[in-house]
Amino acid sequence: MKRALIIGITGQDGPYLAKLLVNKGYKVYGGYRRSSTRNLWRLHYLDVKKDVELISLDLIDQTSIMAAIKQSRPDEIYNLAAQSFVGVSFEEAIATGEITGLGVTRILDSIRQTNPRIKFYQASTSEMFGDALPPQSEKTLFEPNSPYAAAKLYAHWATKSYRQGYGLFACSGILFNHESPIRGIEFVTRKITDGVARIKMGYSDKIYLGNLDAKRDWGFAGDYVEAMWLMLQQKKADDYVIATGESHTVKEFCEEAFSCVGLNWQKYVEVDKKFLRPNDVHYLLGDPAKAKKELNWQPKVNFKELVKMMVEADLEKYQNPLKHTRQFLKHI
Q: Which of 122, 151, 153, 239 could form a disulfide with 101 if both were Cys (CB 3.0 to 4.6 A apart)?
C-alpha cells in the first residue's frame, strides 16, 4: 500500500486530494498546523476525515517536519500549505515569505536528510506570472507582483534546485485559479456565491468587491488534484501548468452566479476601493497543453458548471441551517 503525506490538508485542495488518494488505495496522512481550534470542517464536508491520520506539523519548524516524515514514512509528499491569500500577503509580507517560501525549503531539506526517494509535489501558482502576456505556459517568464507571488516563486525555484542539485523527484504544479464549494470565504469566488445565496434568501442586499475587470482562468479543485497525483506517477519529475485554457472576468463570474438564482447582478454588486489590491494581476490565462499531452489530463468541470455548483452549495447551506449546525456540532 502506498503512503502519502498531505501537508496543508485542512485547506481547499487537501480534502479533494485525500479523497482521490484514498480511492486509489493509499494510506493518507494529513499534516496540519496545531492551533487552539482544529479547522477540519472541509474534511468532514467531503466525508474523508475518517480515512486520514492527522499529524501536527509547522512549516517554520523543521524538527516537526522531519518528525512527521518519520512518522508517516510516505512514498509521496504533497505540499499544499501556504499563507495563500494574496491580499493578506501585502499586510503580512514577512510571515508569508517565512511560511510560503522558506517553509518549502525546510520540507525539501527534510526529504533530502530522511529519505531522498520520497516523491514531492509543490503547489506553485499562476500568480507568479503577474502581468506577463497571456497565455502563460511553462516557458513564460515570471513577473511576481505581490509578496505571496514572490514567496511562491522562491519555493518554485527551490523545488527545481533540489531536483537538479540533489536528484530529488520534485515537481511543481503551476495551478491557475481553482475553486469549489469549500473555497475559503475570503476568496472572491466564494464571496460572490455566498453573497448570492444570502441575497436570494433575504439575509443581505449587497456584495462589495474590488476590481471587477480582473480576468482569471477558473477551474474546479477536484479536477486539479488529479493533475497533482499524475505528476508524481511520471518517470521523470517536471513542472506543469494546470489550467482550463479560458479566462473570465470577475464581472462575468458575478453575472453567471446571479443568473443561477434569476437575479440581475448589477442591482446587487458595488465596488469598494478598500478591496482593491496595491498591485493587482489583471489577466491570467493558462496554456495546459503540456499537461494534456504528457499527463493525459483534462479538466472535466467547465466555468458555468463550476459557478452553479458553488451557488447551489451555498444556497443549500442557508436553506437547511439546522442540518449544517448539526453536522458542525457532531464534529467538534
A: 151
- Of 173, 157, 183, nearest to 41 by C-alpha is 183
Q: Per the residue annotation, which of 76, 127, 179, 256 is the catalytic one?
A: 127
For residue 278, pLDDT beyond 70: yes
* Active-site residue, 193 included: no
Segment among 2-6, 23-27, 56-60, 69-73 with least mean pLDDT: 56-60
Q: Residue 83 in contact with residue 59, Cβ under 8 Å? A: no
Domain borders along the chain are 3-179+218-242, 188-216+246-284+302-330
- Amino acid type, 225: V
Residue from 10, 96, 100, 125 carrying the catalytic annotation: 125
Does residue 125 carry a catalytic annotation? yes
Catalytic residue list contains 179: no
- The closest alpha carbon to 277, from 324, 226, 209, belongs to 209
Cell of 249: 472576468
To the question of domain 3-179+218-242 being in CATH 3.40.50.720, the answer is yes
Total-model pTM: 0.94
The catalytic position among 148, 154, 162, 224 is 148
Class of domain 188-216+246-284+302-330: alpha beta
Residue 89, C-beta contacts closer than 8 angstroms, at least 6 positions apart: 83, 96, 100, 146, 147, 148, 151
